[in-house]
Amino acid sequence: MQLYLRLAWRNVWRHRRRTIIIVIAMGMTMALMMWYDGLMNGFTDAIYGNAVKVLGGNIQVHAAGYRAQASSTPLLPLADPQAVIKAAEANPLTLGATQRINTGGLVTSQEGAFSVGITGIEPEKELSVNIIGQNVKTGRDLTSADMDNILIGKGLADAMGVQVGDRITLVGSAQHAQMRQRTMTVIGIYDLGIPDLEKQTVYISLGEAQALYGLPGQSTEVAIFLKQLGEEKRGHQRHETQPARLRDRIVRGELSRPGFRDQRQEQCDGHFQRNHHRYCGCGHSQPAVDGSLRTDA
User: Fold this and answer.
1) Are 166 and 108 spatial neighbours (Cβ–Cβ below 8 Å)?
2) Is the pTM of this model over 0.70?
3) Domains with residue ranges and CATH for the chain
């Protein structure tokens, strides 16, 4: 063996220029591969991160029974959303936690009627975690004091032929399948550079949504934003990381009281979604399309 090693060493340095060229070429190839891998991971994290910020956070907490009716976006109010927010904000991995009211409906103008999702938000709290408010290009962002004002996307504004200051009619589904209608002023237009996404959702203040849909002081969802994307999956795999503790604290601690139910009493209602897989509490994986954890409280 030593003889072979000596022969190999002599052969390597017999043509020093060739050896140096090969070593440099291999080193540059490995460096470029590592750089490209990091670049692609950065693109992936940016895409997922922006999607999570637009579509409702890393974790969503809903009232019991929401999962069975999710396709119709039911207005099921949480019994104690402040308990959820308090538990979430106590975790060092949490960037922010906000209340929301989500429902579906129509917005109409002279150009016609358009189907949209209607989201009531806390604008000041959402500004630091949601890129919608950060990309208002015309007009201004919502405030908590705004009533009869609405924030829409540029794609929807173009399709409806409206501008800031114009009035449009909002029709939304309230509790018990009742329809509520109100004429509102376009206060701002956000631009994400994706017209199809901008047509999907309109935003009003949480107070306006509570008044419009008969939910005084209530909300139907708590959206929790984590500081780092991907913590949900690791929390599920190890069961000892902070996201897992956050999940357990929400569904077993603060929410183990009348009006809530333990997550494990349902059939995997709470589930982790990341990299196109859903990781349920039962250990099974199912197809998914986003990177969030959703929990019915």
Assistant:
1) no
2) no
3) 58-93+227-297 (no CATH), 101-218 (2.40.70)
